[in-house]
Amino acid sequence: MQPKKLFDGVYIYDGKVLTVNLAKRHKVYGEELFEMEGVEYRSWNPYRSKLSAAILNGMKNMHIRSGDSVLYLGAATGTTSSHVSDIVGNEGRVYCVELSERNMRSLIEVCSIRKNMLPILADARYIENYRDMVHQCDVLYQDVSAKEQAGIIKKNAAFLKEGGYAYFAIKSQSIDISRKPEDVFDEVKAEVSDTFEVVETIRLEPYDEMHLFMVMRKK
Ligand SMILES: C[S@@+](CC[C@H](N)C(=O)[O-])C[C@H]1O[C@@H](n2cnc3c(N)ncnc32)[C@H](O)[C@@H]1O
Q1: Is residue 161 a part of any domain in this protein?
Q2: Alpha helices in the chain (DSSP H)
Q3: In a domain, 200, yes or no
Q4: CB of residue 203 inside a 6 A radius of ligand 1
Q5: How many independent structural domains does the chain possess?
């Protein structure tokens, strides 16, 4: 049996989401590697990656494609961004912004093997610090555990082409631990509505609690 194609560069096999490994025989976070008919696939763990969780929970709007340039905010140690790197391939590019120096050390190792990933040690609240390094992007992806999540994605929309898609993992507890997640999500949706049209929202349970994953289109 062959893996079934879900989207460009994204497959499913035996209940597992897979991408084609751009860096053969290299793992990023201990994920399983499978070889089938000469192609090496990497298992994409939904408990470790919100994008994989959203895909397994039925996300319909996957607009990250081969050759795309992606601005990824909150790249941490490269778990999800490495799968994005598999999808966009050698003709694409993933600009990986991360604030923590500790995470950046591991991320740099991943980027040294994957030539389409560019590490940027910076605070995504201050886009002027990386404006010269990032070109206009097809896709914006944000997963930062910061209070000002809505403000950050709105500022970084400056790097997104008109009509480009944004993928936004909202963590209600980083914004306000004392309020109901649904109220926090509604407030964030209202806050970004002048910049983005919300195309799809996906809850991430059972893989992640208290998160909403939004697919948005730049107005
Ligand atoms: C939940 S983790 C991201 C996990 C990652 N997206 C993945 O799936 O592989 C959130 C990351 O956001 C980073 N972060 C928090 N505030 C930030 C900011 N203002 N600018 C850039 N990164 C930030 C944290 O250091 C952390 O690594």
Answers
A1: yes
A2: 50-56, 79-88, 101-113, 149-156, 172-175, 181-192
A3: yes
A4: no
A5: 1
Determine the Cα angle at 20 with ends 81 and 23, to 5°.
70
201 within a domain of the structure (yes/no): yes
- Burial state string for 12-50 with b = 16 or more CB within 10 A and e = fewer than 16: beeebbbbbbbbeeeebbebeebeeeeebbbbbbbebbb
pTM score, whole prediction: 0.97
Residue 129 Cβ contacting ligand 1 at under 6 Å: no
- The residue to mutate among 121, 125, 145, 213, having the most atoms of ligand 1 within 8 angstroms of its beta carbon, is 145
pLDDT by position in tens, the chain (length 219) = 789 999 999 999 999 999 999 999 999 999 999 999 999 999 999 999 999 999 999 999 999 999 999 999 999 999 999 999 999 999 999 999 999 999 999 999 999 999 999 999 999 999 999 999 999 999 999 999 888 999 999 999 999 999 999 999 998 888 888 888 889 999 999 999 999 999 999 999 999 988 999 999 999
CATH classification of the domain holding 181 = 3.40.50.150
Q: What is the pLDDT of residues 96-115, one digit of tens each?
A: 999 999 999 999 999 999 99
Residue 56 located in a structural domain:
yes
Q: How far does residue 125's CA lie from ligand 1's centre (Å)?
A: 12
Query: Domain span at residue 198?
Result: 50-218
Nearest residue by C-alpha to atom 4 in ligand 1: 76
